[in-house]
Amino acid sequence: MASHVHNGTGPWEWPVWLTMAIIPLPLAYLLGWARLRGSATDGIPRWRALSLLAGLALAWIAVASPIGTGDGRLLTFHMVQHLLLMTFAPPLILLGEPLRALRLGRPFHPRVERAGRALGHPALCWIAATATLVGWHIPAAFAVALGSPGWHAVEQASFLIAGLLFWWPVVQPWPTLPEPRWSTVLYLFLATLPCDILSGFLVFSDRIAYSAYLPTSSPLAVLDDQQCAGALMWTVVTIVYLVAGTIVSSQLLVSPSHRQRLAEVV
After folding, report:
1. How far apart are CA 176 and CA 191, in angstroms?
2. Which has the closest alpha carbon to 137: 162, 155, 114?
3. pLDDT category of residue 70 using cuts at 50, 70 and 90
């Protein structure tokens, strides 16, 4: 196994790919946010700007902090990193409406519009997130990512991209036209299933799924770490998706169109 897995350069690292991608984005965003601040129609609330900055900070921390640099020693660290990159950072980034601040909204070329609608289709977003989650947790793929800095970076980037795709139909950031649908609640419920299966396997299995951790600890410690990682994923994903589903349901119940339909029924 590559030496970078067990002999990190320190508790904090500066991942070049992520740092170079993240630093220009908040600067450009804040410039656009400042330009739109005085607009009554296109202005972005301050809380949205703080949300985007918090999401970018979480993404960087997931990779550069001891959580990221220690994921080769503990599966629990890997799971925390995975949750930050797929479950927490993406919705915070999308809530900031980065395309509005960067002036990347409509009008688009018709082909770009069609491609954007296809890319943001809930079915495709669900499949992309599920395939990324399951694919990288296959033991062979997991070992490749731990053994190669390049593949490790690809894994981390795919977690973040898949997370952004997954949360797009839920958050529906500008320039998407908000379309409250009860299917979003079903979308979130179905998304918990692959997470539940994977986390249930890690929690209840008496076999070590990832032998790459055996050189760092005793088999009993590795199994305990595996169960802790599975329990963490199971609990956090369930709570986050439940909160998101509750927010979406509340928005639907208080929407004028829904109240009008209820009045017609009564």
Report:
1. 21
2. 155
3. confident
Give the CA distances from residue 239 to residues 84, 88, 173, 197, in Å, rounded to whole numbers and listed in that order: 14, 12, 22, 16
Question: Using an 8 Å Cβ cutoff, are 47 and 185 in contact?
Answer: no
Residue 186 sits at φ, ψ, to 5 deg, of -65, -40
Whose structure tokens read 């082909």? 111
CA atoms of 216 and 111, how far apart (whole Å): 51
DSSP state of 255: S
Pairwise CA distance, residues 241 & 189, whole Å: 7
Determine phi and psi for 11, rounding to 5 degrees. Answer: -70, -25
What is the pTM assigned to this prediction? 0.85
Over the stretch 239-255, which tens digit does the pLDDT of each residue have?
999 999 999 998 888 76
Provide the residue type at 255 as one letter. Answer: S
Delimit the domains of the chain by residue range: 3-103+112-265
Residue 145 tokens read as 């990512």
